[in-house]
Amino acid sequence: MIFIIFLLFLANLYKANAENCNFFEGSWVFDISYPMYNSTVCPFIEKEFNCLNNGRPDQIYLKYRWQPQGCKLEEFDGRDFLQRFKGKSILFAGDSLTRDQYLSLACLLYTSVPGTNYNMTRVGLISTLIFLDYGVTLILDKNVFLVDLVPEKIGVVLKLDSVAQRSKLWLDHDMLVFNTWHWWTYKGAQQPWKYIQIGKRLLKDMDRMVAFELALDTWAKWVDTNVDPDKTIVFFQGVSPSHYNGSEWDEPYVKNCAGQTQPLLGSIYPGSLPPALAVQKKILSKMSVAVKLLDITALSQLRIDAHPSFYGVGGATGPDCTHWCIAGLPDTWNQFLYNLIL
Ligand SMILES: *[C@@H]1O[C@H](CO)[C@@H](O)[C@H](O)[C@H]1NC(C)=O
Ligand SMILES: *[C@@H]1O[C@H](CO)[C@@H](O)[C@H](O)[C@H]1NC(C)=O
Ligand SMILES: *[C@@H]1O[C@H](CO)[C@@H](O)[C@H](O)[C@H]1NC(C)=O
After folding, report:
1. Residue 247's pLDDT band (boundaries 50, 70, 90)?
2. pLDDT for the residue numbered 299
3. How many CB atoms sit inside 10 A of residue 160's CB?
4. Closest ligand to 244 CA?
5. In this predicted model, what pLDDT tens digit does every residue of 145-158 receive, in sequence order?
6. Is 38's C-beta closer than 6 angstroms to any atom of ligand 1?
7. Among all residues, which ones are annotated catalytic?
8. Measured in angstroms, how far is the CA atom of residue 245 from the centroid of ligand 3?
9. At residue 140, does pLDDT exceed 90?
10. What start and end residues bound the annotated signal peptide (predicted)?
11. Burial 63-84, CB ≥16 within 10 A → b, else e
12. What is the pLDDT of residues 287-313, one digit of tens each?
């Protein structure tokens, strides 16, 4: 009798553990069945992310599966996903790391029903992919700051307290996936604005982390006011890490991600988490709509091997250690997305 009670106790302990399990804590394990799909069969991958097609010679980086500590992730089931979103639409808004995840999702879905009919169109900054046999629509709004970037007489103005320009596009979807961070750090020629505007004040520049927080707060207010959480699931992508300094992962003589062919094993990245992640978490915690954070930063930090490096658009500008190869890491980000809607 006592033995049976003990067994029940253990079973409950296990169940509680699985329920409380944090998907985002774990490690990368070698899995011969990976990648999740054959990227040469996916028609959507842009050159920037198409590492195999660009001649990347090593392929071990494709063979790592994320293993959470103490629970199991369901495999991404593209057919099931298409059924669940039949007649529905999903919008991604953000920078090129959002495009990375968007195209990965497009490939995960397409390769689950290869040869299925689709219509991909791109008008300006907006891409639309429709899986015609399912009526599933995937929209990408390339929108690097989320808040407005407006060309005016004085020059381009970044308006920290307005999302009016593009937010109409965000209405009436069944799932929204937002992201912004990387462009907030850009200076000099890469910086696309001349002034920052807060209310009526125009500034030449300001603390970028403060600007980022003000902008996220504007975005959060829009979501809280305009999104019906009973109809729409909202995700935030989190901070995708770059690898331009080997000191961060205790290899001081390694300049960047070029030539890295395997992830860091174990679950601890020697470098620290980017402060922008704490800002995102702070803003999300204050919202009335429960936005699910894809907390991909730490687990992606371990993937020093998964960037395009010289097998993206690369070349003159040096290796790309910011984006990620497709197939590859963004497939796991979408696996989290899938597990969080099950
Ligand atoms: C991927 O698909 C291509 C084209 O159909 C094929 O030649 C190749 O063998 C496939 N690769 C794998 C690993 O299945
Ligand atoms: C694809 O979408 C475009 C733009 O909406 C439209 O003009 C075209 O007719 C569509 N093609 C198909 C096959 O549905
Ligand atoms: C790399 O990181 C180390 C440790 O954080 C730092 O001391 C060093 O200046 C960095 N190197 C570059 C080139 O940024």
Report:
1. very high
2. 98
3. 24
4. 3
5. 999 999 999 999 99
6. yes
7. 96, 320, 323
8. 6
9. yes
10. 1-18
11. ebbbebeebebeebebeebbeb
12. 999 999 999 999 999 999 999 999 998
Quote the percentage of the chain above a pLDDT of 70. Answer: 93
pLDDT range class, residue 317, cuts 50, 70, 90 = confident
Distance 291 CA to ligand 2 centre (A): 33
Burial of 266 (0-12, 13-18, 19+ CB in 10 A): exposed
DSSP single-letter state for residue 74: P
Closest ligand 2 atom to Cα of 132: 14
pLDDT-derived band of residue 18, with 50, 70 and 90 as boundaries? low
Q: Over the chain, what is the mean pLDDT?
A: 94
CB 63 within 8 A of CB 35: yes
Q: Residue 309: which of 319, 301, 300 has the closest Cα?
A: 319
Residue 40 CB–ligand 1 contact under 6 Å = yes
**Any idea where the domains of the chain sit in the sequence?**
27-339
Cα dihedral value 322, 258, 302, 266, nearest 10: 180
Q: Which amino acid is at 227?
A: V
Ligand 1 atom showing the smallest separation from residue 38 Cα: 1
Could you say which ligand is closest to the alpha carbon of residue 249?
3
For 91, counting Cβ atoms within 10 Å of its Cβ (0-12 exposed, 13-18 middle, 19+ buried), the class is buried
Which residue owns the Cα nearest ligand 2 atom 8? 119
Q: How far is the CA of 120 from the centre of ligand 2 (A)?
A: 8
- CA 111 to ligand 1 center in whole angstroms: 12
CA atoms within 13 A on the CB side of 296: 27
CB of residue 245 inside a 6 A radius of ligand 3: yes
Statement: residue 99 has pLDDT above 50: yes
Nearest CA to ligand 1 atom 3: 40
pLDDT for the residue numbered 78: 98
